[in-house]
């Protein structure tokens, strides 16, 4: 949940670190800090509560020289967000500085032991325990830093990506990972460390993704980084070329990443389908389905595990896979699944969906399903992240880096991959009629163009949002494929505007939520011309009869609903199961514009972080 960045080389480290932190700020932003070492072996640490810009302001008149440094942007787990608890943390000897992403679960036991031996602590973080432990071992056993790090990490239970600077050795940084992402960038006479590749792509495209229990040692002047395990055995890592460009991680003229990512969706979906859909041949080709045909088509049952927005996409996936492939599907919150006692075996396929590929609960759910013999299929966005590496096979959604904390393009990318998966499996299992298959392939291919038409109504949605900024509560309704869209619309609004919102299947309104409706209550209802249209019309009548305010998402040209609703947004017609790819867009825009009207921090909403790598 925190972002870590490191630099060792020939440049001034500080500007590289600050730029890197800004790119990683989506991972956490309640405090930030930097540690720098000069060639004269002076260790300087600056840290402050707040964002990276606050750190910049704080360090403005300070000495920020040095060609080696580490820096951190924090999402607090242990200890409130203040400058004392901000990283880097310094060891008692004053020699070592550490940054850490993750949680040291047994920190209390380790801390007690150290305190008994006279070590005093400055902060209430789990991270300080680790740097004190390394320092203590180094002093007590008179060993080098690498040995002390290995010995300390053997005692640690939990998750970490760490980087350590030693004041006495300005030419070296040691980094390590377990269950938290870490990448080493290899430049010409310089090295970079990052929670992901975004801080380093400006300088190099050569990277090494660390595996769990790997320790990286980078030395100034050496052409390559060195990698060992906890037993000091050498590990050979292949240097990979990262396919990411600066344009993908910058705002490109948009005021917020979220708006950029909403508008990118037609292109993202094209990227997602490229090479997988061939309209001329009326075909969907997913290599994972070809390579693992037997495991997938013979699945007795599919269980989808995910969190948040990815869980909402999973609910759509359930309907797609059940309708098209006739396979029973269950959808589980990964956080619940991991602590349940699921009855699964080798005849089950578990699909894990995650934008970041790092969500701790989803990773734990995968491990549990693997132990029980299930075949695991991953649907992820972040290339090289932990989940794709933990699964047997899978598909990337290829929508490019998503930086806004509120997920948008990842959702439509996930739904697109689930649709292609259902089509490929349905064809292989013979559960979809050829005409339906051909029509769906063609229509899916046309969705990006139809998305553009929805996006053209951005100004209309902005105007609607201005009317409703007063509201303290919103209700979102939908049915069938659009029920998960209602849940997703409500989540978007909650996350970035802090307005309470609930998503419901429209027919459930009469079983309770209808009591909430009065002239103050906006109800967003996806009421397109699908088989349940008449029922949705009745729901709108019920809301109007109680003076509720209706914002309807309607099929193009539907004058009936337009006349009934207070506000409406029109969607091009499409096949029912593809509607979420269109109907979700006005809800993303509505949440965005309401948050902007209310002056909220759209890309970095309070208390949230982009990837939740802790429980
Ligand atoms: O990276 P993941 O897809 O695994 O993340 C899951 C959730 O944490 C994520 O979708 C979260 O709910 C977003 N902030 C939603 O906008």
Label this structure with key terms.
615 residues; alpha/beta; 8-stranded antiparallel beta sheet; 6-stranded antiparallel beta sheet; 20 helices; 26 strands; 37% helix; binds 5-amino-5-deoxy-1-O-phosphono-D-mannitol
Q: How would the blueprint of this fold be written?
A:
Elements: E1 3-8, H1 13-24, E2 31-37, E3 43-49, H2 52-59, E4 68-74, E5 89-90, E6 96-104, H3 107-116, H4 126-141, H5 145-155, E7 158-166, E8 172-178, E9 183-186, E10 191-194, E11 206-209, E12 214-219, E13 226-228, E14 240-241, H6 257-263, H7 265-273, E15 277-278, E16 283-284, H8 287-291, H9 293-297, E17 301-306, H10 308-325, E18 329-333, H11 334-337, E19 348-354, H12 360-371, E20 375-380, H13 386-390, E21 393-396, H14 409-429, H15 434-455, H16 458-468, E22 473-478, H17 483-497, E23 500-505, E24 522-527, H18 533-545, E25 549-555, H19 559-564, E26 567-571, H20 580-597
Parallel strand pairs: 17-18, 17-19, 19-20, 20-21, 22-23, 22-24, 24-25, 25-26
Antiparallel strand pairs: 1-4, 1-10, 2-3, 2-4, 5-6, 6-7, 7-8, 8-12, 9-10, 9-11, 11-14, 12-13, 15-16
Helix pairs in contact: 3-4, 4-5, 7-14, 7-15, 10-14, 10-17, 14-15, 15-20, 16-20, 17-20
Bound molecules: 5-amino-5-deoxy-1-O-phosphono-D-mannitol (M6R).
How would you characterize this protein structure?
This protein is 37% helix and 23% strand. The strands form 5 sheets. Strands 3-2-4-1-10-9-11-14 form an 8-stranded antiparallel β-sheet, with helices on one face. The termini are close together. The structure holds 5-amino-5-deoxy-1-O-phosphono-D-mannitol (M6R). Residues 307-310, 354-356, 359, 362, 405-407, 491, 495, 608, 611-612 line the site of 5-amino-5-deoxy-1-O-phosphono-D-mannitol.
């Amino acid at each position: 949940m925190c972002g870590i960045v490191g630099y060792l080389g020939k440049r001034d480290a500080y500007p590289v670190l600050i730029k890197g932190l800004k790119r990683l700020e989506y991972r956490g932003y309640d405090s930030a800090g930097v540690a720098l070492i000069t060639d004269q072996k002076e260790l300087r640490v600056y840290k402050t509560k707040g964002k990276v810009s606050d750190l910049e302001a704080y360090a403005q008149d300070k000495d920020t020289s040095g060609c080696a440094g580490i820096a951190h942007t924090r999402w607090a787990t242990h200890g409130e967000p203040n400058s004392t608890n901000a990283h880097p943390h310094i060891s008692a000897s004053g020699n070592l500085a550490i940054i850490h992403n993750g949680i040291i679960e047994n920190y209390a036991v380790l801390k007690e032991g150290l305190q008994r031996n006279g070590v005093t602590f400055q902060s209430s973080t789990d991270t300080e325990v680790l740097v004190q432990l390394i320092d203590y071992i180094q002093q007590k056993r008179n060993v080098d830093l690498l040995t002390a790090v290995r010995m300390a990490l053997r005692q640690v239970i939990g998750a970490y990506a760490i980087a350590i600077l030693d004041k006495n050795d300005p030419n070296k940084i040691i980094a390590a990972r377990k269950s938290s992402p870490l990448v080493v960038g290899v430049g010409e006479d310089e090295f970079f460390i990052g929670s992901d590749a975004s801080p380093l792509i400006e300088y190099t495209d050569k990277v090494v993704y660390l595996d769990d229990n790997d320790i990286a040692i980078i030395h100034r002047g050496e052409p390559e980084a060195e990698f060992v395990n906890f037993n000091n055995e050498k590990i050979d890592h292949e240097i990979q070329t990262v396919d990411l460009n600066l344009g993908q991680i910058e705002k490109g003229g948009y005021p917020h990443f979220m708006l950029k990512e909403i508008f990118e969706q037609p292109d993202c979906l094209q990227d997602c389908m490229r090479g997988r859909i061939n309209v001329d041949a009326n075909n969907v080709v997913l290599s994972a389905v070809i390579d693992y045909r037997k495991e997938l088509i013979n699945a007795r049952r599919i269980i989808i595990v995910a969190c948040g927005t990815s869980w909402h996409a999973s609910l759509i996936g359930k309907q797609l896979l059940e309708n098209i492939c006739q396979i029973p599907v269950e959808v589980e919150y990964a956080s619940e699944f991991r602590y349940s006692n699921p009855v699964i075996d080798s005849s089950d396929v578990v699909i894990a969906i995650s934008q970041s590929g790092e969500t701790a609960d989803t990773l734990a759910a995968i491990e549990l399903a693997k132990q029980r013999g299930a075949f695991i299929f991953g649907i992820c966005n972040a290339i090289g992240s932990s989940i794709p590496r933990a699964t047997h096979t899978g598909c990337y959604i290829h929508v490019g880096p998503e930086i806004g904390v509120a997920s948008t393009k990842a959702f439509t990318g996930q739904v697109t991959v689930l649709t292609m998966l259902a089509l490929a499996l349905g064809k292989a299992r013979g559960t979809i009629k050829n005409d339906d298959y051909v029509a769906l392939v063609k229509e899916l291919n046309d969705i990006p163009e139809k998305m553009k038409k929805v996006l053209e109504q951005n100004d209309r949605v902005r105007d609607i949002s201005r009317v409703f900024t007063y509201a303290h509560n919103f209700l979102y309704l939908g049915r069938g494929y659009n029920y998960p869209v209602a849940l997703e619309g409500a989540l978007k609004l909650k996350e970035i505007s802090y307005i309470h919102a609930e998503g419901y299947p429209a027919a459930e309104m009469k079983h309770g939520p209808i009591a909430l409706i009065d002239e103050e209550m906006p109800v967003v209802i996806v009421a397109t011309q699908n088989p349940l249209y008449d029922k949705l019309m009745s729901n709108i009548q019920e809301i109007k009869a109680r003076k509720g305010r209706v914002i309807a998402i309607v099929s193009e040209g539907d004058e009936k609903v337009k006349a009934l609703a207070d506000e409406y947004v029109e969607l091009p017609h499409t096949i029912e199961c593809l509607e979420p790819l269109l109907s979700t867009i006005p809800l993303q825009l509505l949440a965005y514009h309401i948050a902007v009207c209310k002056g909220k921090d759209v890309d970095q909403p309070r208390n949230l972080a982009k990837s939740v790598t802790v429980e």
